[in-house]
Specification:
The chain has one domain (3-139): VKOR domain (de novo design (two linked rop proteins)). It has 5 helices and 2 strands; from the N terminus they run ααββααα. The chain has helices at 3-30, 42-46, 58-75, 81-112, 117-139, and strands spanning 52-53, 56-57.
Length: 143
């Protein structure tokens, strides 16, 4: 795959993750019901004690992470700090996102015994971004 195509695909996937997380954050902050369409138990997951850290919705943190990834994909083509460090920042953020998504998926399945399809979309998006970040690092020419 060509690097520009992978970058565009990464922006698309991060955009999907951003919309998904922003929707969950909006639901959490506005105390509305999630439109789960009968698939899963979104409200159980989004209203649990695991849906916040220090009063901040996890979904809001996820939306910020996806927004920062999109920022990285856009500025990585510029010279200087961003060109030099965007790849490792991308890798580190997606690795942290995948590990935290795995933890949250465990909480859904083993503790809450409820699955939120929106949370699954976010976890899959972050996993895809991590795989692409690894591919990009391995495909990058050595300095």
């Amino acid at each position: 795959m060509n690097a520009n195509l992978v970058r565009r695909l990464s922006i698309l996937i991060a955009g999907i993750g951003l919309v998904d997380s922003a929707y969950l954050a909006w639901i959490k902050l506005s105390n509305n019901e999630i439109l789960c369409a009968g698939i899963g138990e979104c409200d159980v997951v989004n209203s649990s004690i695991y849906a916040e850290i220090g009063g901040i919705p996890i979904a809001l943190l996820g939306a910020a992470a996806y927004a920062f990834l999109i920022f990285l994909y856009i500025v990585e083509t510029r010279a200087g700090f961003w060109a030099d460090n965007a790849g490792i920042l991308n890798f580190g953020l997606t690795l942290a996102g995948v590990l935290y998504s795995a933890y949250l998926t465990y909480i859904e399945v083993a503790v809450l015994k409820a699955i939120c399809p929106f949370c699954v979309v976010s976890a899959v998006a972050m996993l895809a971004l991590f795989v692409l970040a690894v591919w990009r690092m391995l495909a990058a020419p050595p300095d």
